[in-house]
Amino acid sequence: MSKSLVIIALDWDAFYCSVEEHFNPELKKIAFAVKQKGIICTCNYVARARGVKKLQMLVDAVKQFPDLVIVNGEDLSRYRDASKELWYFVRDMVWGGKVERLGFDELFLDVTEMIDYNIALLDNLHASGVSQRSVDSAPFFFRMSKEDESVGFSCPLSSVAGNLATGSLPENFEGDNLRLVLGSHVCHYIRSQILDIKGYTSSGGVSINKTLAKMAGAAHKPNQQTVLFPEFAQDFLDAFDIGRIPWIGHRSKSIILDAIYKGSDGVNDTPEEDRDSTVFTVRHLANKHIFVNSLGQSSGEKLWDLLHGIDHSVVQPTSDIPTQISIEDTFKSLTSLIEVHNVLSRLSHSLLERVQVDLMDSNGDWLGHPRTMRLTTRTRSSGYGSRISRSDSLPAIVFSSSHTSDYIVDYLVDRCWMPLFSKLIGDAKAFDIVLLNVAVVNIEKAPAKSSDITAFFGKKKPNDNDHLQDVHIEEPVHKRAKVVGEYAKSEFSDGLAEDEEDVVSEDDSCDEVCVVCGQRMMSFALEAHMRFHDFGE
DNA sequence: CCGGGGGCCT
DNA sequence: AGGCCCC
């Protein structure tokens, strides 16, 4: 019989607010909310006690709570930085670095190895002749390090730390149950360290898989933790609406309910308000076949398992290198190319900064290279939530150290983002953009620096790594020529493709200024830029 | 009057 | 390229 995993889910309380309080402690005492554009995205617990809700409209909130303090949270950099810092802090405590990040404020920890090791220590105590009773009643020192026996904490083996998900204790504290008891103490220790050293409160859940741990953690907030023993998992889940189970979103819930409550003739035989959507009812009205038929094999099986407390997904240690980096902004309306051009310049500048900060180490070496750039929009007509995107290969000039950021940004906007935009809107003579998102994706991990390898072998030979990188950088420029050519044929521009060879040359001294709008740009961009004005006006 | 991200699967 | 999921 195999032993169960021990998974901890951690969730920073009111995260954006906690970060704001970190920078401005005065906020701790007052009711405040973090807004993004016209919406309250979160609020601290003082505000929640007064009735302020998350995802409430800003206008409604200030009407209802005139003295509510509002903090702008549209720039995520401080939240991203704090999130990373807390993630690294926790990861250093978990053996094998088995920590997965979900959003900015949640972590999954697989502490199975640490539990196994400490259970083995405990078994040795039992085997050494001391009576089980005296071993179990004395405090146990849980070791958080294999190397340093002083690192760890004392904990009882006869009680759990924090809350019990269903309020009742398991029949025994043996086997997998004992593992979760230890897990609850690990969770408590880690949360204490985060509070003592980093100053952030958190909520924790402990169970045998990610979903049960996450749901347990949500049961008691803020600054609390909850353990869910597997023998209570089904009772715990049965009381929930299926839409409250993580990974069952709006769409899946609606598909499931339709499959259950619509007759086979397609006639709606149960009105919406009479549809019971608790896990218990859905489990008894449906079966795995119904789930697989309506949701597909993979999703169907997965969601059916979730309703029964089964989650085979593993904690995937989050990479130091993100899989994508994106910057977006929303607008009332963008209808002219020059507006789009200006916004793309701003977004592109932020994106380049993000790429440089997130993908370069402290030595200035690249950790990874995005190979693709993607432009995403939402138009007024495309409907809320629906996005349209186009992508293309990312020119290597982004990784060049011999150009200024301004030069690279101008190059990207005129030669890449604007062509992608024209590809995106196609033949449309008019457009109405409400969202623009620029992203780099397909981030290829950079090979370890060869200087590290020579250091490893004790040699210090001068290497031409930088030269190799230059050769590598140059190559996609030729691919770029094709896109430039297409752009040149578009109705916004022509004749641009003639001299792509000197596009990445050191020719950034020839700044030009648009006589129409005053926009500063590189010479190669001016002709295309003037076409924007022709188009828009 | 309608966040700004991010991940995986199809 | 889009859909659906998460925060």
Automatic annotation (TrEMBL):
Pfam families: IMS (PF00817), IMS_C (PF11799). One of its GO terms (biological process) is DNA repair. Residues 7-249 form the UmuC domain. GO terms for molecular function: damaged DNA binding; DNA-directed DNA polymerase activity. It comes from the Eukaryota. InterPro entries: DNA/RNA_pol_sf, DNA_pol_Y-fam_lit_finger_sf, DNA_pol_Y-fam_little_finger, Rev_trsase/Diguanyl_cyclase, UmuC. Gene3D superfamilies: 3.30.70.270, 3.40.1170.60, DNA polymerase, Y-family, little finger domain. This is UmuC domain-containing protein. The lineage of its organism: Eukaryota, Fungi, Dikarya, Ascomycota, Saccharomycotina.
